[in-house]
Amino acid sequence: MFRPYSLSALVLVLGLFAPAIPAIAAPLGEDGLHKTPWFAMTFRDVAEDIEAARAEGKRLAMVFEQRGCIYCAAMHEKLLADPEVADYIKENFVVVQYNMFGDEEVTDLDGDVLTEKTAARKWGYVFTPTIVFLPETPPGEGTVAEAAVATMPGAFGKWTFLNMFRWVRDKGYESDEHFQKYHARIINELRAEGRLDAE
Predict the structure, then answer these.
(1) Range of the domain at 67
(2) Rounded Cα distance, 71 and 69, in Å
(3) Is residue 175 a part of any domain in this protein?
(4) What are the DSSP E strand ranges found in 22-148?
(5) What's residue 25's pLDDT?
(6) Is residue 164 part of a domain?
(7) How far does the signal peptide extend, from start to end residue (predicted)?
(8) 155: closest CA among 26, 64, 42, 57?
């Protein structure tokens, strides 16, 4: 008896023979870092950036990158180019890019004036990309590393990446639900909805 293939099986078969779709090329800046156009350009005074983000009803996220970082490129070309990821971050966060080996001036929350590279050393950030999430208001004392409510070092898949932004926005760091438990719960919900396409 003839049984027709399901649409999902047909899509899978056709996908095996389709040419690979190239990643969206994120343009490179003069500093060699990939540029996502909706990242904020600021004077990198962290307290001012926190306040500016709050005035927009958003949170501040700082992303450390370096020239030639393949994981940074993947973050720009795959994760930040994904409309679901980009739309959520743009709606809820102000993102400021830092060059781990850069010389642009940075003002820490404790008032220290540094360069990007000395700030990265002071705060202990050694991986790229590293995304640092700051509190809703400047703490009034301490450093960025001490004030950060969460830090995401390294490259992750779509749902880990996006769920960290959601967890911070939902103030998960103030609750008893650790990020890993939050992430597992969201993944289970996505599976139940049939929306899980990664991780």
Answers:
(1) 25-156
(2) 5
(3) no
(4) 59-65, 93-99, 105-107, 113-115, 130-133
(5) 57
(6) no
(7) 1-25
(8) 64
